[in-house]
Structures are given as structure tokens and as C-alpha cells.
Amino acid sequence: MSPVERVERVLSGRWSDRAPLSFWHHFGPHQVAGEPAVAAHLAHLEAFDLDFLKIMNDNGYPHALPVERVADLAGLTELRGDEGEFGRQLELIAALKRRLRGRVLMTTTVFNAWSTLRHIVRPPREHKPPNLAPDDEVSGQLLSFLAQDEETLRRAIRVAAASLANFARRCLDAGADGIFLSVRDDWLERAGTNRARYADLVRPADLQILDGAARGRFNMLHVCGTPVHFRDFADYPVHVLNWADRSAGPSIADVRDWVKPAICAGLDNLRTLPEGTPQDCEREVADALRQAGDRPILIAPGCTYDPERVPRANLLAVCRAVRAAPVCSE
Questions:
Q1: What are residue 266's phi and psi, to 5 degrees?
Q2: Which class does domain 3-324 fall in?
Q3: Cα–Cα distance measured from residue 160 to residue 176, given in angstroms and rounded to the nearest whole number
Q4: Residue 138: predicted pLDDT
Q5: pLDDT at 191 over 70
Q6: Quick check: helix, strand or coil at residue 40?
Q7: 221 DSSP β-pair partners
Q8: Which helix (H) or strand (E) holds 21?
């Protein structure tokens, strides 16, 4: 069975010969765009014979002016989706499409409007696995902007969402099979609070971006951080739902009976992969499949892993465990 067939069967809720597998990490700063980025993605895919490719996007969002005050956000304008950093990502997608020729499905990273504004306010100096702590200085600054001038911040979210929707359309045109939309609600909400802030401010923007990618065949929603209102993401119009079931929850067993999109989870990118033994990794794969029961799933981590900390032997153990698992049957 080909990797594409394997994934498509799981997306339709049918058993495959085995669970599709993938995992991903940020590449070095010299491998963000151009041929170095293409080569890094292909080497990673081929080294582990992965079933689908998550295209990393560390190119950023095109904007020229620094944002130090809420008034600076008023300068944001809607983008076509092919400017500057967007264009570099589109070139990466197109090059991978030419080289892979449809051998695997490709989903390309798109950060939602809130994450994009965070990057505009304070561009990341380096890209590493996520910090699960909800207290965040940059989101705190955005929330202070909200208190100072709500309409300006709301407009900035709308403009970013429109630009990202245009970018998502162009990603599909360039050859991506879908987008990997990264969202996170614990920057805005806390456990026990109502859903008003994220649902009011950010969810409409998320849905607008997904609408831009609606003709994709492999759209994934990545719920980053520790979700406060996980159920609110479970009804997004996507093919696949990915989250940190191990380090943040909920578990696969807790959601397998009611989550509509295909489940993509099972590997702990923060603990087991970097700190465990190959045997620990094998047991984690077996446990993920056990939790899924009679529901087909995709095996993957809840987010990026740190390639400087994760032993290659652990990644190979994951591959062996997935491929040696009992064959599923209809």
C-alpha cells in the first residue's frame, strides 16, 4: 500500500495495512528557504520513510514596520499571499511538489492570526519545541493592546486572517495537499473561564483561514499548548486533528469516540522521544494503538521535537514499532 493510500484510508475512517506515521522538527536557520530547505525536508522524509510530510514554515509573515504600540497595528494591510516571506514558502512547496511528484501527501504550516500577531510584535529568535506554560509575555502584550484599543486589535486580527487565507489558497496552488493550521487557546484563556475571548476574537479568523484552504484534501488542525476548551476545536472543518495527547491531554482514549476528524497523536515529543529509551518509544506506539481501539489513527508527536536532544535510535524504534504492529483489518 502506498503512503498516500495508507493516509487516505485512515482519513475516511477505514483500516489500513498499518497506522500512517510522521514526525517533524524545525530545521536550522540556513535551511528555512531555497534548496537547503528542500534538501532538509527530503532527507528527513527519506531517512525514516515517513507516510506524509509536514512542511515547516519558519519564513515568517511579511511586514516591514516594527510594532511597539497598539497604534502600530493600524498599519497592517491585507496581503495577496505571495509577498516576501510568503513567496519563499510557496517556492519551497512548489519545489517539494516537483521532487516528490505526489509520492506522499504534504501539509504546510500556517500559523493562525493570533500567533501571527505575536510573531509581528516579537519575531522569534529561534524555533524550538513549544513551551507549555500558558503565561506568555508576548500574548500578555497583545491582551494589553486589546484593553487599550480593542477595535485596532480586532482589525489587525481580521487583516491577518484575510492575508493568511489568501496565503493558504496560494499554498494549495503551489502544490500543498492541505494546510497545517496551528492554533492555541491557553494564551488567551484559563481553565474554568468561559469561552468568550477565544471564540469571539480568534475562532472566526481560524475559520476564515480554513475556508481559504477548503479545497485541500489534507487539512490538519494542530492544537498547540495545553488546550483549555479542546471540544471547541474538535468541530473545525479539517481532515485531521493533531495535539499533544501525552504532555497536555486529553488522551486518545478520552476522545476516540467523539472526535470527528482523523486522530493524529500518540508520541510524546517533550519527554519520551528525548529522554526515553528505544523500548519506551516502542511501548508508547503500542499504547497509542491500544487507546485508539477499533478507530484507525495516524501516529505522530503532539508538536515538533528537538533534533539535538532526540536520539536517532528512538526515532527508528518508533518506525519499527509502527511497522511491526498487528495489521488492522476491516
A1: 115, -25
A2: alpha beta
A3: 21
A4: 87
A5: no
A6: helix
A7: 181, 241
A8: none
DSSP letters spanning 126-190? S--SPP--S--HHHHHHHHHHHH-HHHHHHHHHHHHHHHHHHHHHHHHHT-SEEEEEE-STTT--
| CB of 267 closer than 8 Å to CB of 285 | yes
Q: Give the number of other Cβ atoms within 10 Å of residue 215's Cβ.
A: 10
Output the pLDDT for position 327: 65
Closest of 144, 247, 229, 224 to residue 192, by C-alpha? 229
Nearest to 223 by CA among 206, 200, 209, 205: 206
Instruction: Give Cβ neighbours of residue 304 (< 8 Å, ≥ 6 apart).
Output: 24, 25, 26, 127, 128, 129, 130, 269
Rounded-to-integer distance, Cα 274 and Cα 258, Å:
31
* Cβ contacts of 117 within 8 Å, gap of 6 or more: 73, 142, 156, 157, 160
Q: Can you give the residue ranges of every domain in the chain?
A: 3-324
**Whether pLDDT at 221 is above 60:** yes
CA distances from 210 to 22, 130, 213, 264, 314 (A): 22, 23, 5, 18, 34
Does residue 12 have a pLDDT over 60?
Answer: yes
| Amino acid identity at 301 | P
CB crowding 37-49: b at 16 or more within 10 Å, else e: bbebbeebbeebe
Whole-angstrom distance, CA of residue 224 vs CA of residue 270: 13
| Confidence band of 194 (pLDDT split at 50, 70, 90) | low
Confidence at residue 323, expressed as pLDDT on a 0 to 100 scale: 97
Q: How far is the C-alpha of 290 from the C-alpha of 218, rounded, in Å?
A: 25
The phi and psi torsions of 175 (rounded to 5 degrees) equal 130, -5
List pLDDT tens digits, range 133-187: 766 788 889 999 999 999 999 999 999 999 999 999 999 999 999 999 999 999 9
- Average pLDDT value over all residues in the chain: 95
Of 23-27, 64-68, 248-252, 304-308, give the lowest mean pLDDT range. 64-68
